[in-house]
Amino acid sequence: MKSFLKIKSVRNSLTLLLDDFCKKHGLDSPKSFKSTFNDHIPFGEWLNKIKEISEQYPKEGLGLEIGALVQANHIGIVAYIAQSCDTFADYIEILSKYERLWFNYIPKKIDFDEDFFSISWEKPAYVKAGLYIKETSIVEEMQV
Asked: d(Cα 98, Cα 62) in Å, to the nearest integer?
């Protein structure tokens, strides 16, 4: 049986985001971008790339810094569709339908009330087992 870290994946072009971050901060970029048949890399490989950057740039809020550099080309078609949304509610609908095309992680739970909204997700089993805790925290910051 395959593990979460091999089944779940991220769009390969997100490695370009990591390359952009490394260039900006003069860091060695993790393994170079490789095109794959389905244009995704296993989640475990993604976490290892995050770990390589974190070891070179040990800073609080690393995920927010990386996430601030996201461009539509890092995400792909979903970003271009989202740019056509007129409202935040439209964007949330797109996100919930198509997120797995670029970030196949854990489904998000989205709650709305009169004045607020929240987006949450469960912790994966590998984190509950004590694996990739720091890297997962960075990845979750990037999602924010």
From this structure: 26
CA atoms of 3 and 9, how far apart (whole Å) = 11
For β-strands 9-11 and 40-42, DSSP reports them as antiparallel
**What's the half-sphere exposure (Cβ side, CA atoms, 13 Å) at 98?**
14
Q: How many CB atoms lie within 10 A of CB 84?
A: 9
Helix %, strand %, coil % of the chain (to 5) = 55, 10, 35
pTM over 0.90, yes/no: no
- Mapped onto helix, strand or coil, the DSSP state of residue 62 is helix
Distance from the first to the final alpha carbon of the chain? 31
Which pLDDT tens digits describe the chain residue by residue (144 residues)?
Answer: 358 788 888 888 888 899 999 999 999 998 665 655 468 888 999 999 999 999 999 999 999 999 999 998 888 888 888 888 998 888 888 877 888 888 888 888 888 888 888 888 888 888 989 999 999 999 999 987
Find the Cα–Cα–Cα–Cα dihedral 37, 40, 42, 44, rounded to 10°.
140
